[in-house]
Amino acid sequence: MDAFTQEMQQKLLQEREELVKKLNSEGNNFAEEAQLSSGKDSSDLASDDAAYRKMEALNAMDAQRLKAIEGALKRIGEGRYGICLQCGKRIPEGRLRAIPSAVLCVECKSQNEKMG
Asked: Which secondary structure element, helix H or strand E, spans residue 19, and what is its range?
């Protein structure tokens, strides 16, 4: 494994650890909030529901990021990290530094976005 891939692996491992801690912490906060909300009136509960939905959406995004990180770590282990899954070309280091879990080169990503 080259130095760049090792650097990206460490960055991905650190990001994964931070996300797992965040998701676990937020899960505990939800449990506490649920216990506290049992005596609230309907307007408070509606506000809590909106906050819960927002937090749920954020957690879903974090879970998606975690899945992407796990995929990148798997590709590192398989020796396929930094290879575009669509065209098979190398993903530029600059793109990987910006988005370590990237699976597409800039060209393929742009093509996919244009196609919808």
From this structure: helix 3-36
Residues 36 and 77 both lie in one domain: yes
Question: What distance, in Å, lies between the first and last C-alpha atoms of the chain?
Answer: 35
pLDDT digits (tens, 9 = 90+) for 24-48: 887 666 555 555 555 555 555 556 6
Is the pTM higher than 0.85? no
Cα separations in angstroms, 84 against 63, 65, 88, 97, 116? 22, 18, 5, 15, 19
Q: Which range of residues forms the domain containing residue 107?
A: 82-116
If one counts the domains in the chain, the total is 2
